């Protein structure tokens, strides 16, 4: 198969972890006789520095014409504590999601047997957890009208949803639940918010199209509790953008394997694959960042092109590296740790 | 001291847990020669059933003229799955907070040595946790303009904050931090939301008035992670209404003692004291609900009237009941459990 993959390394540790995923993908291409053409493009703070825009038009052209996008991370701390900054790296992320129509973020939370004791939760609480949070990604308060009034002394943001946006996301959730344990949980704040009531009534109306799926409804604050108490209770969770932002990050730490969690952002034409961790600027350039989440994101990419053998091969070699202790310092138990580039080399060699 | 206390039992288990707090307060009044006049009033679903309003004017009159309000819980499941319901119990809560000007919710999270193994978190993660979340309670998206457009197919909610609202809450946070470990964390989503940027710039401008307080800033999704990973890292957290709703509930389960956590809602004239747990309708009327959070909320009430001996006496008797196993079924280890009313009787007798 020929694959054109847009390569957006981004900021912080992005370039380093992306490099390892490229090594692994190239090894896969070599072994299975695929032809991958990498199309590097600028994004985030790196793009602001180069062309003054966190998601430049040239980058969008490359992504829109690619078969898939492999993405590192964006964000730089010099923007965080500067409320006056006009252009922010994260705006690139939002713009990219919107322009590529990436309407759903797929975030699995599962455990690795060898890493389960790294979880902050007790083993009996977390063992066997296998859930997916499907977060709406192009609507809600991150994209609604915002601004200031009263000489800057009043600020507002608007959370808006249309029935169509909710249906599109929920449909994906129902379909996903059908391939799994057939349990869907819609998370909202329907006891207060009008947009949440639209979510709930829309999902309720769709229930009859999926009679096999058992649907439940929870308030977001209750879910924030239950994810810590009984994560095993969930199969597929669907929720709006801001709630999903908070809950996916909370879910990411309960497995104890945050550095390993991949994700996909699904669009109607092109999908994007990225590690869930951020740009981790403190570690940038030190060759110490864990590349496994990016490597596992590449496995999700292959799987979506129905290259299941290739995806399995990547997962096998990742598991092997964990079992043999070929890991970066965040996962090293007493023993030796390896550099980011060494882990990437080892993975590629063992494909 | 003479105390007029408005007594809002509310829905579900509210009346039962309130009854036990009244017994304990009456025992305190008797022992320390105070005169408590209880002023019962309707709220929540109970008030909707009786007068069609979840926070009737008569109830507000009683609260506004009381020295303090002791509150149970409100909410009834028959409203949750009915998006068409025009009047909801929770609207009573919002209306009460607004009309009484309860602008800050004080939510401590701490551990009880005898209950620490009930935490879903590993002992080393949670032991020693002692944090307070100060949640803004009368602004933000729960009170902003909301509605429908396009024949009901688009719904919106508005998150609005003024500089004054933020200053009032932050001032309380700085003052609270000064009496504790002098660390304040402002939680927002300033990388995306305009209202969050107003939060951040307002708190940043106040830093110089409290030079001893070490201030940090975090994004809400990061805090949702870190509360599970390293709750000991926090001292006082200040945040807006919706974020606070989610984070306080998440924080409530990490100690393993959710059924015991009290809270206060601070107003300029009158404050309200309530357990953090909800109305727990499944347990209503069964005499099995844990009354300790309500009893400990009464302790916070006495403390705010500078009746420290009385507050200490209540905490002493609660700890004694835990140590001696005079507990409801949620806390019973193998052994015997007691009914709600039996625990209340025992506490009152031991004052
Ligand atoms: Mg996030
Ligand atoms: Mg809540």
From TrEMBL, chains A, B:
Cofactor(s) recorded in Swiss-Prot or TrEMBL: Mg(2+); Mn(2+)
Pathway(s) annotated for this protein in UniProt: Amino-acid biosynthesis; L-leucine biosynthesis; L-leucine from 3-methyl-2-oxobutanoate: step 3/4
Subcellular location field: Cytoplasm
EC assignment: 1.1.1.85
Biological process, per Gene Ontology: L-leucine biosynthetic process
Site feature Important for catalysis, where: 142, 189
Residue positions binding substrate: 97, 107, 135, 221
Highest rank taxon of the organism: Bacteria
One annotated GO molecular function: NAD binding
Cofactor note: Binds 1 Mg(2+) or Mn(2+) ion per subunit.
Principal location: cytoplasm
SUPFAM superfamilies noted in UniProt: Isocitrate/Isopropylmalate dehydrogenase-like (SSF53659)
Residues that bind Mg(2+): 221, 245, 249
Family matches, as InterPro entries: IsoCit/isopropylmalate_DH_CS, IsoPropMal-DH-like_dom, Isopropylmalate_DH
Keywords linked to the UniProt accession: Amino-acid biosynthesis, Branched-chain amino acid biosynthesis, Cytoplasm, Leucine biosynthesis, Magnesium, Manganese, Metal-binding, NAD, Oxidoreductase
Top-level enzyme category: oxidoreductase
Isopropylmalate dehydrogenase-like domain mapped to chain residues: 4-347
Role description: Catalyzes the oxidation of 3-carboxy-2-hydroxy-4-methylpentanoate (3-isopropylmalate) to 3-carboxy-4-methyl-2-oxopentanoate. The product decarboxylates to 4-methyl-2 oxopentanoate.
Family to which the UniProt record says this protein belongs: Belongs to the isocitrate and isopropylmalate dehydrogenases family. LeuB type 1 subfamily.
Subunit composition and interactions: Homodimer.
Protein name, per record: 3-isopropylmalate dehydrogenase
Species of the source: Pricia antarctica
Gene responsible for this protein: leuB
